[in-house]
């Protein structure tokens, strides 16, 4: 294996070589965040270690994803609190509410493995989760920032993610929590982080930029250039979302909004953005999106293969009708 000191990482940590990250967040309506040691991170990714109940659960979830084309999120965060008794661990369930989007709804549980498999199947397959009500715990306020530090999946996430998470954890407060988290995609964007319950994913973050994002202060344009997108929206809407943030400023992030791709072809799309302004009045824009060119970028530090990374132009018009 190539030594880390000589390994050419797929991420340089600055975002200067791979174009913009817009439109690269995974799309999901349901996400699970579970407390697990880094050793378990690897076991959850290795099907040879699974027991029969886990195999059956992930088999049914895979069938659902294949049938609907809609995935689900799975984050594993390193423990930061006192262990729970017995074989219980902390689990958070995030679900996308219907209608105008302001963020995912969160429910917290203390579960064992059997409870986790039951919750995952019920939530993804649209079944009743009330059987686990007695396992629910109070949901804290504030935001959770999950930094990918899973260096065993890709060295870039270890090299860039671990220092970022450590620096942010030292200064977090006021309800902001920062977690060491397993792989959630996008090695070439390291350090990459996911913001919940907003469901936004960010690329090539620094301590300074993340602190600025948490406080919603200063020049927002460097952050707009690093927004991969919200998992609540499809790829085209994520591109429009990032450009709307650049156009409208900080208030856009927390504005109630509906983003709808009304027309899409291979290299162009039209997205309708309906949102509520800071004065409480509704407004809307239409985004015309065009693929301008495609970059070939490496998706892994450990493989030489490249993948196409579309780059976009976006023009806005006041929506009508």
TrEMBL record:
Pfam families: Suc_Fer-like (PF06999)
Coiled-coil boundaries: none
CDD domains in the record: TRX_Fd_Sucrase
Superkingdom: Bacteria
SUPFAM superfamilies the UniProt entry points to: Thioredoxin-like
Name of the protein this chain belongs to: Sucrase ferredoxin
